[in-house]
Each structure stands twice: as C-alpha cells, then as structure tokens.
Specification:
547 residues; alpha+beta; four-stranded antiparallel sheet; 14 helices; 55% helix; 24% strand; disordered N terminus
Length: 547
C-alpha cells in the first residue's frame, strides 16, 4: 500500500508540483492513480547518435541495355545474307545509400523510488517511509476537518451518530499519522496549569479523562434512546458505572476525605457545644443562690451609714451590675441548647453527602436527561454524579446551621467576656481591715468561690466553640462549587521536505541536425508546516471553595 501511494505522490509531483511550484496535498497525491507499485519509471537522456535513412541515387551506365539489330554480312555464296548484332544503350542505375537524416537520443530508465531515495541524504527515504501518511491518511484528515460536524466533535458537544462516525474516522487517521512518524502533540500541561491548579481557597478534583474512546462509548450509549428500540438500560448502566468507578479513585475518594474532615470538625463543635451547655447550667445553679448570699452579707455590714462611703457605694454598684449580668445566664443556656441542636443535623447532612459521593449513578435520572436531550456532550458527564446535586444543597443547609451557631457565639461571647472583666474589677478592690472592709472582703470571697470559675468556664467554652467554628471551612457563605470540563487541544504537524520535479531539456546537434529531450529532474522542496487539529480530549473537574 505504501509503495502504491508513493507512486501516486511522485507521479503527481511530476505533473503538478514541478509545473506550478506549489500545490495542495490532494493535488500532490492525486495523479497517476493506476500505478500500483514502485516499478514505475521514467527516461532520462544519456547521449545521442546520428540517425541514418536510406536515400536513392542514379548513376550513368553507358551500357544500361543492349539493342539488337541486323546488318548486311554477304558472302560469295549468299550475297544478301544479314547477321544479328547488338549495341549498348546508355542509361542510369538506381542506388540506395544510408545517409544522415536526424538524431536519435539515447535514454536510460530510472526507477521512481530510486530517484527519490537519491535525494539529499536520507530525506528522500524519509518521504518514502512516510508516504502512507502523506498521501493516504493526511489528505483524508484534511477532508474530515473541513466537514461541518468536525468542530462540534472536536469540542465534545455532539452525541449524534454522525459524530460517532467522525470520531471513529479520526481515531483511525490519528493512528495512521502516528504510525508513520507524525507524533500527536498537545497543550495539556498548559491547560492543567491554567484551569486545574488549586488557588485562592479553591481545591480541584478531577474525574476520569474523556478520551476519544470514552467519547465514542458515550455516544454509543446515548444513540439507542433516539431510535425505535429506545434506551438500553444495560448499556447506560455499564458505561456510567464504569466511568464512575474510574473517577472514584481520582475524585470521589478525595471528596470523601474532605467531607470526613468536615465530620471531624463538626464532632469537635458538638463537644464544644455540650461544654458550653454544661458550663451555662453550672452557672445557672450558682446564680440562683448568690444574690441571697450577697444580700445577707451586705445587711450584716451596711448598718446605719456604714456603707455610704464612696468606695463602698462604687463597689456595691459593681456587684449589682455583675449579678445582673450573671442572671442572663439562663438566656445563654437556652441559646446554647438551640445552637447545639443543629450540630447533629450538620453531621447528618455531611454523611448524606458522603453517601452521595460514593453512590453509583442514578440510571433512571440519566435516562430522563438523555431522552429530554439534556445530555448533549461530554460536559454533561457531571449529571451522572449524584453528589453534584446533593453537595450544594447540603452545603447550603450546613452553612445555615453554622450561621445559627455563629449568631449564638456573636451574641454571647462578648457578654461573658465583659462579665469576666466586671468580675475581675469586683475582685480587684482592696479593703482596709475595718468592719466595712471585712464585710466587703467576705462578699468578694463569696463571688470568687461561687462565680469566678463558672463564669470563666462559660466564657472560655464559648470562645472554644467559636474557635472550632472558625476552623470549619464553609461557614459565612464561603462554600463554592464549580463543575466544569477542561479541554486540551491535540494536533499533528506535517512539515518536511518532499520530492518535487522540474522539467529539464537536453539539446543535441549532430551533422547539422538538432533535437531536444524533455525529462523530469527531482529536487527537494519544503511542504508545511500544516497542522491537523485532532478532536480535543477532556478533563472533567470539580472546583470547591472550602476555606
């Protein structure tokens, strides 16, 4: 086959490329379709010799013929006798001689492939080795990419039967070009760097790459849904389950790891929430009794005008403000209980998302999409992942729950920090060893014993709950999800020196005669670069903003 194609190439080069200096590859490879082997040859002149032709001449002949006559020859006895005689009749003789009449050009036969191999080192041999691609699959590829459907196939946006045919042809031609030394190059690295690199709080998860074989299998799965036979559930199950399995290790397992990280943080939040509730309940118990104890102590010391001094009045006001702040603990306890209730819901939503990430495709849902023509290309492959629908919904609910917890922290953390400051002010007052000072010191002791540790525990537990919430990656609306497909381009480049011809003329002159002989002369001329854009390959990706 290679030899036949080579002969076609060379023959057309003689006719076209050499005559015009430039030609399309279809023209270069389109001539002499009947030549089937490398036995094709052409003649070149090696010299010339005189050509002779027979010429007729006439020479005089004095005795060309003899004429008879009678003449008198008497004798005594026969005086009237006559005798026969002859005489020469002059004339001409016809003579043929070889005389120069022109020129005969001497030639030798040159094998086409031999002539090509002799060009500029191994360039001609390289052309012969690649002739199968240059004159076979390359022109066919140029014809394919000129078809209207090819662009949609290249982009992965067509799932028709015509697209499947184009893909199969493209696969065959691409292999042909590669087998003949024309490597397929791509910009995959650049696309990965531009589209698939983590940045600014986003992580990138990849599904299995969709090459042309997978693309063809996808179309094969979808096509029956638009025939009288209808969708073939087994085909759909097999394709999408197989694709999901390939993608699971690349994407789903990593997503599950992220979600398990959420569960760990939610578990810590739950523990911290229970610590807040316990601290609040403990403080509630202390708050219910401390007012009476402080009142009793004040009644004992503040008799008459004993507590009217400025220091005592200021101190008692601080104590009053502190006890008022302490009595708000019941509101904090109720708010903490309300906030804590949503934490198990957050965990349940996360586990539900993990189940969706590990779940096989919902075939009924896919059949519905396909029949409604909502599955129109490789970009719709994400519809086969249940987690794509589940994750945004659950993340929104989790964010709402996190906002409720944040509301509790924002409302109460400041209050209990202020309460701690108020308590410190009360306990920091120094008293003289007077009856009033002794009484006020007793009140400080009651507050220190009853309130200092419980208030500190509550303030700290709320702060720790806030820290655990701050570590949660999707609070405050920070979650984002962008499923997409990164398509990278692929191409083969044809750029090489090809055999071209130009007409040469050899002229000869012998014995006054002249003659010329036209023959092809081979030389190398550049072709290309010309690119064949093969269909793109596609990397489905899922971008998640989780911090």
């Amino acid at each position: 086959m290679r030899i036949a194609l080579l002969s076609q190439c060379i023959s057309c080069l003689i006719l076209l490329y050499g005559a015009r200096g430039e030609s399309t590859i279809q023209e270069i490879c389109g001539g002499f379709q009947n030549i089937q082997s490398c036995d094709a040859s052409f003649d070149i002149p090696t010299g010339a010799k005189s050509k002779t032709c027979p010429n007729k001449f006439f020479e005089p002949n004095k005795c060309k013929t003899k004429a008879k006559y009678r003449y008198p020859c008497p004798t005594t006895r026969k005086p009237f006798r006559r005798c026969d005689g002859w005489t020469c009749v002059p004339g001409t003789d016809e003579i043929w001689r070889d005389m120069p009449c022109g020129i005969t050009i001497l030639t030798t036969s040159i094998n086409v492939c031999g002539a090509v191999r002799g060009l500029a080192g191994n360039m001609g041999t390289q052309f012969i080795e690649k002739a199968g691609a240059i004159c076979g699959c390359f022109p066919e590829a140029l014809n394919l990419i000129a078809q209207g459907i090819y662009q949609s196939v290249k982009d992965g946006t067509d799932v028709s039967e015509a697209a499947l045919t184009a893909i199969n042809i493209s696969n065959r031609l691409e292999k042909c070009m590669a087998d003949n030394g024309f490597d397929v190059k791509d910009n995959k690295a650049q696309v990965e760097a531009a589209n698939l690199s983590p940045s600014q709080g986003w992580i990138v998860l990849r599904a299995a790459e969709i090459d042309l074989v997978t693309y063809a299998d996808l179309i094969t799965t979808i096509i029956p849904c638009f025939t009288p036979a209808g969708c073939q559930p087994r085909l759909i199950v097999d394709f999408f389950t197989n694709y999901f399995t390939k993608s699971k290790e690349l994407m789903s397992d990593k997503l599950v790891a992220v979600l398990n990280g959420w569960l760990d943080m939610i578990d810590r939040m739950e523990k911290k929430g229970q610590e807040v509730i316990s601290a609040a309940e403990n403080l509630v118990g202390q708050a219910n009794s401390i007012s009476d104890e402080i009142k009793t102590a004040l009644n004992e010391v503040c008799t008459g005008e004993a507590c009217l001094e400025q220091q005592a009045v200021s101190f008692m006001q601080k104590v009053s403000n502190l006890t008022a702040a302490i009595h708000l603990v019941e509101d904090s306890r109720v708010a903490a209980v309300t906030a804590a209730k949503v934490v198990p819901e957050m965990a349940a939503l996360t586990r539900s998302t993990i189940e969706a990430a590990q779940a096989a495709p919902d075939i009924d849902y896919l059949i519905k999409l396909i029949t409604k023509r909502a599955f129109s290309g490789v970009g719709d492959i994400w519809n086969s992942f249940q987690v794509i629908q589940k994750l945004p919904e659950n993340a929104k609910k989790i964010q709402d729950s996190a906002a409720l917890i944040q509301g509790f922290i924002t409302g109460d953390a400041g209050h209990w920090r202020n309460t701690m400051s108020m308590l410190s002010e009360v306990l920091s007052v120094n008293w003289d060893a007077t009856p009033v000072g002794t009484g006020m010191t007793k009140i400080q002791s009651i507050i220190r014993t009853k309130l200092e540790e419980p208030v500190g525990n509550l303030a700290n537990s709320i702060s720790h709950l806030g820290d655990s919430l701050d570590a949660f990656p999707i609070k405050d609306g920070k979650f984002g999800m962008q499923p997409g497909v990164a398509s990278y381009q692929r191409h083969s480049t044809v750029s090489m020196d090809v055999p071209c011809t130009r007409q040469k003329r050899a002229s000869f002159s012998i014995a006054g005669y002249q003659k010329s002989f036209d023959y092809p002369e081979f030389y190398l001329c550049p072709y290309g670069p010309r690119e064949i854009p093969w269909p793109n390959q596609h990397i489905p990706f899922l971008k998640l903003r989780i911090q």
